[in-house]
Amino acid sequence: MIEKALSGSRGYWVWLCFLLLLTALGFLMYLRQWDIGLGVTGLSRNISWGLYIANFTFFVGVAASAVMVVLPYYLHDAKVFGKITVLGEFLAVGAVIMSVLFVFVDLGQPARVLNVLLYPSPTSLLFWDMIVLNGYLALNLLVGWASLDAEHKAEPPARWVKPLVLISIPWAISIHTVTAFIYSGLGARPFWLTALLAPRFLSSAFASGPALLIMMALILKKFTRFDAGREAIQKVAHIVTYGLLITLFFFLVEVFTVFYSAMPAHEEHFVYLLFGLAGKSDLVPWIWSSLILTVVALALLINPATRRNESLLFFACIATFVAIWIDKGLGLIVPGFSPSPLGEITLYAPTAPEILITAGVWALGFLVISVLYKTVIGVRQER
Question: If you count Cβ atoms within 10 Å of the first and of the last residue's Cβ in the chain, which end, N or C, has fewer?
């Protein structure tokens, strides 16, 4: 079936060439980082995680969100999700690939990846994160491809597909839970030291991932003959709405707990993030932009009239996607490191090579998604 991705319109090939160009540019910058080291990035002794790990965390959530269309379709026989489920599974494939690559580039030297394989440590959360991510990648690729192949042959999926689907549902929850535990298990970082972090990760994932899925479905509807169905898109929009509401609620609960308890070790991180601290307010515009976008997206999604308008729905999904990217990016990583345990505030800003490497990873991930989606469209048009 993959041959269906080798034919397409001029616009399709221009898009693929653009992604390949960005990927190549990112790879060239990565070679420079490999040669010089992580000194080409904006990372420092005090802030050792930055743009790479921020995107890793975000795309793990996007990958996990595939369960929100897989579960109703396979478990509750919700036929309305029939056309969009395979899009969600293949979106998860691209998201996991990006997540793994962001860890890869963050390690600096590629050989360090082998340490996890050669010297496995069951007590390490990074070890378990590697297992659940690669396992989830295999599950989504196998289930998505087998389902599409069965549709291509006009026959029911093989019997072994259903057990894999059942396994993938709790597995999706596990990949983002383990990611959250990597943060919340660090006792010296009070900003992350909360049992609410894993639920916050999952709720935000169930907003950002489906929002991206809606955007992809609407783009496919506009530029191809593939239509996931208005009812399916509206159902997924409901999922985005609830996910965003719960995410905002969890954030407000965290803010109340921190400021009402007034524990300095916890409070100063939120003060720095929301209002600035000791004259340093570099994150304030970002986090307030995220909050404003969240409120705007909720206003559009809660109102049935605006939610049913596909143009406004598309904008609401963009707002949701950007808001959560900021919240799980700069709004999560930097305040965890700054102020440091000694009270030192260190500023962080991604460098040009860091941004280009990040863009290259995004491009490669969306290249994979584009090829898989083109295969889906080819099969559906043939049917």
Answer: C
